[in-house]
Amino acid sequence: MTGTSFELRGATVDWTARGGGRALDGIDLSIGAGERVAVVGPSGSGKTTLLRLLGAARVPTSGEVSIDGEHTTDASAKSLRRLRSTLGFVHQDHCLVASLRVSQNVIAGKLGQRGGFSAFRSMVLPARADLERAHEILETLGIGDKLFQRVDRLSGGEAQRVAIARALFQEPRALLADEPVASVDPARSRDLVARLVETAAERGTSLVVSLHDVELARGLFPRIVGLRGGRLQFDGSPDELRGDVLDGLYRLEDATRD
Amino acid sequence: MTPRSARVLELRRSRPRSRFVRVSAFAFVAFGVVSLWSLRGGFADLFSGERLEVLGRFFTRDAWPYELRGEPFSLTGLFDWIAAQWHSQGRAGAVTTLWIATVAIVAAGAVGSLLAYLGARELAQRDPFLSQASDKPVAWRGVTASLVRGLSTLMRAVPEYVLAYLALALLGANAWPAVIALAIHNAGILGRLGAETIENLDRRPLGALRSAGATRPAMAIAGIVPAALGRSLLYFFYRYETCIREATVLGMLGIASLGAFVQEARARQRYDELLFLVGVAAALVLAVDVLSQAVRRWVRGA
Amino acid sequence: MTRGRAPSPVGRRGIVVLGIAAIGAWAWARLGLDLDGLVPTEGGARIARRFFGAALSPAFDYEADVVGAAPPYLATIAEALGRTAIYAAAALALAFVPGVVLGVLASASFWGGDPATVDRRGLGRVVPRAVRATTRVLIALSRSIHELLWAVVLLAAMGASSATGVLALALPLVGTLAKVFSELLDEAKDAGERGVRGTGVSPFGAFLWGRIPVALPDMAAYTFYRFECAFRSSAVLGFFGFPTIGYFLRASFEENHYREVWACLYGLLFVVVVLERWGAGLRRRFVT
């Protein structure tokens, strides 16, 4: 299985018409199949919006985003959904379905690939194979025993890992994770991101992870993209991201714009 | 069987679940289905020839204004009829209904506030809003709170209609039985909702008041009332809506609200007038609904 | 709303409270109520003495001789309470599915669609609005007519039958359930729905698997609470000739059999209090 490739040309997300600001401003970026990229930048720099564009959860207000050569702006709602079903997305705030069990949340990863009745059955009476696969994934993330817990009884870190498990269960061609370690303690977060990188490398999955922690990004990713105020400020190897370049990215004044 | 499938089975068997919830849900659904099934005869009977005839006559003849029957259809004629009905009975019934519900809900609000204050368990603690989960309430205060809660349960458990029926026999036919019945029932409901609101208030500012030596009444005036007022008003208007609904029908016992006119039209078998009055009742409820929504939004915006 | 900044002493809420007091006083004056009306009439006082005197000795047997063979009194009461519950449950069973359907159609979240393509739809914008508005009108109509008024209309249109009583209870219940369900669905956190949408599922699938489960515990708790209300309404239907507990209560009262009246009242209270405790237990367990 090959990973997904992404191509952004002048991608802009502009909320001024709806009383907001510019979340992204003319981003040019290409990510090859199977590439592993960390996105860093101060909060409000547009990391989440960028990931949402890559995940086909949004289309740009101007410019182009193409996923595996398909332009999302002209794509029908249906082809956007098909694209999404091949992209595993880990949301910053987990976005699990509270009041369902861990198993159902993980198995929900395949809802987009299953139609009608088989989707219904997988949620209500899951097949043994699905449950075992879910357990296997959860076990590698260290929470195999939580398989049948309700997700609203989990800690923040556990919920985060369930969200990752859902994306992995999807067997995606690209894994997009928005601050996947925001609610995990620092000691564990390196472990968890390393696992994501490892899994992606094993399967040839493309991986784009936004991270608050630059050290983490530098230690684990061959390529880092830096955003600031909705613009692409840095794109290169970890070695190039230091000193003045790093200071420029996180300089305090005017760091965010709404 | 692989070790993994054995482990999954074991996890599944030991999954946390509440027998109480499952048994209740099953009992509830089963009872609903069985009940509906047990009344199937009544539903089948609805489609018998005789009933369909009654139904047909109702729609083609009885429901149409008596004074206009046999005449060619005219919209102005219908409007004139509606206006005449409104002046002869609709307005009087609607206005009385409105006043009964209003007096009753204001009384219920006053009594309910007192019940809430006396029934809140937190206020029975030695130091309200400073207590730990394990603390026991002051003995006599705890007993009072339990008694008040029990009383409000009983007050809301009896339907308004039954209360009004009993009160009517004791007090005679005036507006009091309706007012009392609505006030008792709603005071019970507002008392419980109010007690819950008090117990869920932000503990720190109130605890600080207590540490500063405030007595319970002082806490109520300085902290509890201001903090709980917003939510209490939402509940108050929600109950006002239901109060209007109930006040219309209490008239059917012989109290001068809309229901009294409904009952009279029924006795005379004037179903045209009956439908008109039901329409007035619905319009009244809708109007108060819209009004109370507007007030609630306004209060929330404060 | 109850937290944060200190509320000003006379804000909007203060105005509302003063307004309520003033309108209450005005209504009082217009209604011509005076406190003398609270003193029972002479006949009323006699009834009151006997009625409250019987409170502590509810009937366990018929108060007057019964002609012919009749079941034991307590069995009659139990059966009447059972029938009251059956009417309520049948009405709820009848109203539940339409209530869910109308509630879903009336909710804004059901029509939200896919945020990525929401700007594109043309006609797709008009149809949902029309359907939603129609549904809301239906809900308002069904809700605004009291179950007893429904009963009176249905009795006139179809004659007496157990089905008439159940329909009278069910019709307003559809609107009540639908209104609350639509509010609960719209108030449910949308995180789950976003997460499920990310897997490529249709907007309907995201609603079904991402939103409904979140609102479900509250919807179930509310349905149970509505059963308690339906039980009370069902009891009152007895006053209109339906064979629920209200029928027996009224008959006993009219024959001055006050100990029987108390037996009916205690039976009614018992069931309602049990239902309320039961509902509270359920809410504690599944509404987190």
Q: In percent, how helical is the residue content of chain A?
A: 25-40%
Number of DSSP helices of chain A? 9
Biggest β-sheet description of chain A: 6 strands, mixed
The total count of helices of chain B amounts to 12
Shape of chain A: globular
Mean pLDDT of chain B: 90
For the record, give the distance between the C-alpha atoms at the N and C termini of chain A, rounded to a whole number: 40 Å
Largest interface: B-C, 89 and 82 residues
Could you name the ranges of chain B where pLDDT drops below 50 across 5 or more consecutive residues? none
Strand content of chain B: under 5%
Tell me, rounded to a whole number, the average pLDDT of chain A. 90
Strand content of chain A: 15-25%
| Strand segment count of chain B | 0
Helix amount of chain B: over 70%
Instruction: Tell me the quaternary state.
Output: heterotrimer
How many beta-strand segments of chain A?
Answer: 10
- Helical/strand content category of chain A: alpha/beta
Low-confidence stretches of chain A: none
